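FAQ

Q: What does a record look like?
A: Structure on top, sequence underneath. For example:
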């Protein structure tokens, strides 16, 4: 993944339903409906602190993770899709006229007011979570240790059965280079572009859990080298007893920070695991309980009601209240984001959580945040209401060591899911592009 700062503009994409006109920036929730109106399913979408600039229908394919990558003088969006639906298993590719399983959409968003659909790469046949190609990461060959300097590499999942590596130097004509196959599941992986190390969320058939970590050296993407398997003790082959919560994803601070923040549990039984990167990569690889414990620095458990969908480090954050204190004026923070899964508030509220991990051996939760349900009557409006992350750190907007500037910029891509996403309206999903421009050095 590319880890650098964009100093002047933040380019963000989010997933929403419909394409109706948006309220003005700054309007409160519900303004599109009238102050006294009761919101209902099918009402036009609402916006706060952003406005719709452009949209693309994505061939009516349900979209999930996206990465926006700067290639030459263009900005290219790579969008992962869930599998098809029971009603439409294989939507028609408008570029070819062929019906294809959902996979990866490639869209030129250089002019965000006029996105240009370039290519659809089919994914694994199947419906919903069972098919498609939900996840995508991108690295420039010039940054990878042994990459082709002329290449741009896309790492994507292929449904639940494989990870794939493509050369997307010409995004309209991608070329498949390699596959890491034989898996039972995949999910939200992480790729260090400067080192080539990839932490692949995988389902190893020999393990006792649906998702664990396979560590690979993808410094030469055409020739992947496996380093080890990793997970929690009790998940490994041959273990007995209760199986710990499955992995959802991880974020590495690279060799500079030497820490990896793993998130376990999606919407319940959440846990943060802080891992020493050097020990993970260079410690004994055999998946014994002792070897799996060796890289671990500490854990922090959430309530059984909430998950750890994403664990995003926001390091060396200055705390204004503590600025005059002799110690502790700067803290290492990790933002947890759960994932709302059930429609219409059919589960415990999934929220944002903030933990202080300055003392790594004793991390502690310090606050949380949620959107007030009554501010938009969100439980009555169809779809999911609660927290979710769509592409944190996928937009080339973080510093290599996750310092405050990068963290605050990346946090802008976090969303609070509310009615309309995955709801009952039956409208096709649309991609929306929004550009916000800041003066050099400023960050509102």
């Amino acid at each position: 993944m590319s880890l650098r700062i964009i100093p002047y503009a933040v380019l963000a994409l989010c997933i929403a339903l419909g394409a109706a006109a948006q309220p003005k920036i700054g309007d409160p929730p519900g303004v599109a409906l009238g102050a006294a109106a009761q919101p209902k399913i099918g009402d036009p979408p609402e916006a706060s602190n952003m406005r719709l600039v452009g949209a693309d229908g994505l061939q009516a394919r349900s979209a999930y993770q996206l990465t926006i990558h700067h290639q030459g003088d263009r900005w290219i969006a790579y969008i992962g899709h869930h599998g098809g639906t029971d009603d439409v298993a294989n939507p028609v590719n408008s570029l070819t006229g062929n019906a294809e399983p959902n996979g990866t959409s490639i869209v030129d968003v250089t002019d965000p007011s006029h996105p240009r659909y370039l290519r659809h790469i089919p994914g694994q046949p199947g419906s919903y979570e069972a098919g498609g190609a939900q996840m995508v990461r991108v690295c420039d060959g010039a940054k990878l240790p042994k990459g082709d300097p002329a290449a741009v590499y896309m790492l994507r999942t292929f449904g639940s059965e494989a990870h794939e590596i493509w050369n997307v130097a010409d995004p309209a004509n991608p070329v498949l280079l390699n596959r890491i196959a034989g898996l039972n599941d995949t999910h939200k992986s992480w790729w260090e572009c400067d080192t080539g190390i990839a932490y692949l969320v995988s389902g190893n058939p020999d393990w006792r859990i649906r998702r664990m970590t396979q560590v690979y050296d993808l410094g030469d993407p055409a020739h992947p080298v496996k380093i080890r398997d990793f997970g929690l003790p009790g998940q490994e082959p041959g273990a007995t007893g209760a199986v710990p919560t499955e992995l959802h994803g991880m974020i590495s601070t690279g060799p500079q920070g030497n820490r990896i923040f793993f998130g376990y549990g999606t919407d319940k039984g959440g846990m943060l695991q802080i891992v020493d990167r050097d020990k993970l990569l260079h410690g004994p690889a055999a998946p014994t309980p002792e070897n799996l414990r060796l890289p671990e620095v500490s854990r922090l458990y959430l309530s059984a009601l909430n998950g750890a969908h994403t664990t995003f480090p926001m390091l060396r954050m200055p705390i204004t209240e503590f600025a005059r204190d002799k110690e502790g004026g700067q803290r290492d923070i990790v933002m947890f984001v759960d994932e709302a899964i059930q429609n219409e508030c059919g589960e415990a509220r999934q929220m944002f959580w903030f933990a202080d991990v300055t003392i790594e051996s004793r991390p502690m939760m310090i606050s949380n945040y949620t959107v007030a349900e009554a501010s938009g009557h969100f439980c009555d409006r169809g779809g999911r209401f609660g927290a979710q992350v769509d592409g944190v750190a996928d937009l080339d907007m973080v510093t290599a060591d996750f310092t405050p500037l990068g963290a605050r910029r990346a946090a802008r891509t976090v969303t609070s899911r509310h009615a309309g996403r995955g709801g009952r309206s039956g409208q096709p999903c649309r991609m929306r592009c929004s550009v916000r421009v800041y003066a050099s050095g400023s960050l509102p």
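Q: Is there anything notable about this one?
A: Residues 253-417 form one domain.
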